[in-house]
Amino acid sequence: MILNRFSNTFTALTLSAIVYYKMNFLIITHVPHILYQKQYFAYAPYVREMNIWIQNADKVTLVAPVADYEKSPIDLHYEHKNIEFVAIESFDLLGLKSILKTIIKAPKICWKLYFAMKNADHIHLRCPGNIGLLGCFVQILFPNKVKTAKYAGNWDPKSKQPWTYRLQKWILSNVFLTRNMQVLEYGEWAGSSKNIKPFFTATYNETDKKSIIAKDFQSQINFIFVGSLVPGKNPLYSIQLIESLYKKGFNVALTFYGEGAEGEKLKKYIYRNNLDNIISLKGNQTQETVKKGYEQSHFVILPSESEGWPKAIAEGMFWGCVPVATKVSCVPFMLDYGNRGVLLDIDLNKDVLQLEILLKNETEFENKSIKVCEWSRQYTLDVFEKEIKKLLKS
After folding, report:
1. What are 162-219's pLDDT values in tens digits?
2. pLDDT in tens, 262-301
3. Which of 2, 52, 67, 223 has a 20 to 30 A CA-CA distance from 45?
């Protein structure tokens, strides 16, 4: 009788321990966060992905900077009821003054990272970024913790990148320093270590696979640019491409969705060159508004200097937009080396000629539009979620 009671009590305590055990999923990121109406908001594409990672976690610990701006239409909140937010200061290594400030800030940030990792069951790093760089160093102290890292930049070992990015890639690839971690990156590259896994990202669900709006060249031919208006994404070059085609007699137009440091420069260029009838700056807009923009566009353009898996390109392709993008990271693979789009050389005369040839061949455009749609619709959030679940179980 006593033995049975002991057994029952032990079983009850064991079950109780299982019920109340908390899986603490730690996210370390450089993405600025906003607290609004008791919810944490950040850049929507990033949060949309993280909501998939954390859906089975009992607790989420966020280590990230606090944003110095108000919530905008491109921000989204985390869908989780148990979030602990650990605020850290952002920093950069651009110039001597910034480096000196970073030397002062870094010990406190690393201390917070250490304790967050110590209390976590799963450590997830978002790279590349300055916070991710510190996270790469601190995670070395936890070789037995289960870890994942998402490297959302260009993994191509031959590409020109900041030394901080190269350092992060080196640490993540070093299986002696970085143990028990799966690193997700874009594209397949020779010489990658065994913990490096080619991956993808997604925006739309299976249920979003609706019929494509028919697009022809009988009326205006629309180009769309979605992303930050910053020098690295070359928004001005996009305008110059469309301007050149317009001057050659093509009925083309370009719409920008996004904001950034280049915004005023673009406005001045548009005004000085009398392009306001074919170039539109829409600013930051909701996902639904941008989706309608894709549906009404023939081409999605992104002459970026560096990318990981450019979501704007994949999203546009989902709606039949033929991509016009640079040969960076895994973009050539996404465009099937030109069979599913136009690979830019960032030589205005050459690139205008490429587009001119395609604009004179509507049948070729239609064929490419079908190909891009079929390819992009393989990579849905439903597929992404299944792959994440496999990672977390392995």
Report:
1. 999 999 999 999 999 999 999 999 988 888 999 999 999 999 999 999 999 889 999 9
2. 999 999 999 999 999 999 999 999 999 999 999 999 999 9
3. 223
CA distance 315 to 290: 10
49, 85 Cβ separation under 8 angstroms: no
Strand order across the beta sheet in which 299-302 lies: 279-281, 252-257, 221-226, 299-302, 322-326, 342-344
Q: What angle do CA 265, 266, 268 make, to 5 degrees?
A: 65
Output the six-digit token pair for 255: 């719409």
Q: Helix %, strand %, coil % for the chain, to 5? A: 45, 20, 35
Predicted structure pTM score: 0.87
End-to-end CA distance of the chain: 42
- HSE-CB of 220 using CA atoms within 13 angstroms: 14
Residue 60 phi/psi, 5-degree rounding, is: -120, 125
Q: DSSP label at 67?
A: P
